[in-house]
Structure formats: C-alpha cells, structure tokens
Amino acid sequence: MLGWTVYISFISALGCFLCPSKRPDLSRHLALFGTVISAFVALFCAATYTPIDGNPVVDVTKWNWIPSLGISYYLAADGISIVMVVLTGIASVAAVLFSWNIEDRANEFFGFFLTLIGGVYGVFISFDLFLLFVFYEIAIIPKYFLIAIWGSTKKSYGAMKLVLYSFVGSSMALIGIMGAFIVSGGVSFDLNQLILHPYTPEFQQWAFPVTFIGFVILAGLWPFHTWAPTGHVAAPTGASMLLAGVVMKLGAYGALRVPMTLFPMGAAMWREELALLAGIGIVAGALVALVQNDFKFIIGYSSVSHMGFVLLGLLATTETGLNGAVLQMFSHGILAGLLFAVVGRMIYSRTHTRDINKLETMQLGRQFPFTAAVFLIASLASVGLPGFSGFVAELHVITGAWSSYSYLALMAGTGVVIGVAYSMRALIRVFWVSDFDSSTPLQTTLPGLTIQEKAGATLLIITSLVVGIYPRLLLDIIAPSLQSPLLKPLLDQGNTL
After folding, report:
1. Which of 206, 371, 405, 456 has the fewest CB atoms within 10 Å, counting from its CB?
2. Cβ(230)–Cβ(158) under 8 Å?
3. 310 and 328 Cβ atoms separated by less than 8 Å
4. β-strands 58-66, 71-77: how paired?
5. Cα 98 to Cα 206, 381, 397, distances in angstroms
6. pLDDT tens digit string along 354-409?
7. Distances (CA, A) of 376 to 128, 335, 423, 431
8. CA 150 to chain centre
9. How far is it, in rounded angstroms, from Cα 191 to Cα 56?
10. pTM (2 decimals)?
11. Could you tell me the CA-to-CA distances from 389 to 123, 253, 330 in Å, in that order?
12. Angstrom distance (rounded) from CA 283 to CA 417
C-alpha cells in the first residue's frame, strides 16, 4: 500500500500537466487532493506498521526490472523509511496550501511540484539501490524548473547552482553504489543482499567517504552547503518548503541507508573527521544567520545549522544519536517548512521585501498577529523549546554525540544558544520594534492572511506539538530498525570506539 504514495503523486502530476492553463484552480485542487490522499496513506501505514517475525523491513512490492544487471523494482520500508514518508506527506500538503496563490502556469508548477514529491517518496521506500538512485535523480530535476521559472532573486543562478551541486553529489554517490555492486559480485542491487558481502577495510576506507559526501552535499554539510541558502532564497515559497522540508533529508537519509549501512568499518574510520564538519556547520550556519539582513537568508542558514544536528546524530553512531538524527530530520522538515512559509508567503508576497531594515518599519506585528505568533512558536520550537519536536530531537542528538565526542556536543550546544539569538533578533526587528506604541497609525495596510495559509501553519504547528509531547509515536516506529541486520553492524562498530 505504501507504494501508492509514489503512484498517486505521479498520476496527480500528470493530471496537473494536462489541466488547461486558463484553469489554475483545477491544478490547485488536484495537487491538494493528491497530496492529502498520499499523506493519509502514509499515516495509515505508520499506524499499522508492525515488524514481521522481528524483521523491521516490510516488503511493498518486488519484481525483476532489468534481470541481466540485477536490478529490481523493489519497494520496502522499515521504521525510518515510514517516518520520512509521513514527513513528506504532511510537508507536501502544507506546501500546496502555501502555494495557493500561484497563477502563472499553475498547471506546470503543480506538475513539477508533484513529480518532485513522487521522487522523494520513491527514495524513501526503495530498497534496490539502483532504483533509489533513479528516484533520487527524479527528485532533483523538477527543482531546477520550480526555481528557474517561478523563483526570484537571481533565480537562474540559484537553480543552476543547486542542480550542479546535486548532480556532483549524486555522481559521487553512484560511484559508491556501483563499487559495492561490483565488489559484491555484480549480482544484485538489493540492499538486503549487498550487506551480506564482507567488504574489505581497504575498500571501505575510500568507498565510505566518497559515497557519504556524495549524499550529504544535498543535506548541506559544511563546507559543501553554499547551494542551500542561495537555492532557498531563489525558490518560490512552496518549493522552499519542500527543499528544506524533505529534499535536504534525501541526502541525510541516503547517507544513512547506503554508506553507513554497507560500509560500517569505513564509518568508524572517518566518523570523527566528518562529525567535526557537522559540528562546524552547526556553529558556522548559526553565526552567519545572526548577521544576515535578508529574512530568507536567515532561515536558509538556519537550515544549514539544523541539518548539522542531523549529520552529527548520524555520525555519533550510537542508538541515541541515530534516534535523534531521524527525529531531527522530521522536526526540521516540519519547522523549516513553516519558517519559510512565514517569510516567503505571509510576508514577502505582501511586502515585496525581505530586508529586515525595511520590514521593521511596517508594523507587521500589529497587522499580522497570527504571523508573529507562528514565527515565535516555530523559531523557539526549532531551537529546542520543550513541548515541541525540536527539543526531543536536539536532546537526543546532543546526548548521543556526548557519548562519542563530548567537544562536538558542546559545539552543538553553542549552536543552540546562537540559534536563540538570531531567532529573537529577527522576531524583534520584524514584528515588535515598531509596534510598541499602538496609538501610531498604520503607515501601510497590507492584504490579510488567507484561510489556506492559516490552515497550513496550523497543520505544521500541531504536528510539531504532537511529536514534542508524545515522541514515542515516532520512537517506537524507529527503534526496531536500529537493531535490524541493516544497522546493527554500524552500532556495533560505534560501541567499540
């Protein structure tokens, strides 16, 4: 049933492309219908997920695709996959709601939008690594068109930079995948079969960093992160939400699913050096965000910082750290999407500026109290306000990192403190600085918020709140996967260090 998330997305994309260009309402409603149905399928599968005979991997469908090359159309899911699919479902519904204002070539916009979503779903549930790579590329291509056509602020440059970085990374990832396939005998790309081969330490020593860096370029690992803020700023709001919410997660998920699963000894050899890059990314991203005056750049560099938490959790190679990494992927996907929605749709589309020096004179707190409240909640939640998903995720990451490298845990804690600083700076300057005197007449009256915007924001806030209050909803799904044959060798390697 989980495979229908992919099929519904692609069918809806085709439907949008075929919609008349003069009827944008048809493509909007079709996109909303497709994403809502896919989200319900994802939630149903999560609610009914039960490991069979202790095996957390549940097969969805499998048939020979290219038998001569050992390639199969193999869709399956474990607890980590299901959490990522649920994230994609919720984030995509919200992104459609915040893209409701798209009028120009709306059929094409939502067609590319849903194609991207279908590719993302496919990556998360592919257990044939060649198929995973195919879906990975499918998810990359629509990003270029979404930014280049409907973006702003050097959109062609931002789109090209994002795609070039993505293709360089995917090429490196493909080298690792093909290396594992050839060394294992060239029989199958099935992940369950590939992990059975005892890859030599010499092979893992070079295959792991090449494959890992190839994937995490898309996750924004410092110093390969510069595409992310540029791409976020140039992208339209809905695309920004997907880019930060789910596309960056493809890199982190791919790093966990492929090199960390296949090459656990390589992970043990390189984890400290790569974890240091993640720690630097946490602090550096936060410091750059602290001095930005472009509101969207602040959120863009914040995403780089928060993705550093994901990678630090992965590279801790402890059960607590991996739990934290998956939780952080989910939490950041929800909260970053919400922050980009606030900046891009609620503010920029009405004020036509992202300069906080100009925004602070517009009395936005008085005109949009709902927006101010949403930004306050999302900002504090993303930096670890108790009761929201960010707190649970970052606590797991820092605890897991402390048991491996205490100094990196301290760097992560420093990033949290700086995160509070840049969040409060943006909040005060944009929403509060000119609003203390309520007797001052409004200089400009801006259009009010739409019901779609309020609904999308409410959906994301409730999701973060539910996970923050009751994290076992996700932890109970994730836990069996960490003790599976796929990840147990990685954790065993981590425990020996």
Report:
1. 206
2. yes
3. yes
4. antiparallel
5. 43, 20, 31
6. 888 887 877 777 788 888 888 888 888 888 788 888 888 888 888 888 887 888 88
7. 42, 11, 8, 10
8. 21
9. 14
10. 0.90
11. 24, 19, 8
12. 10
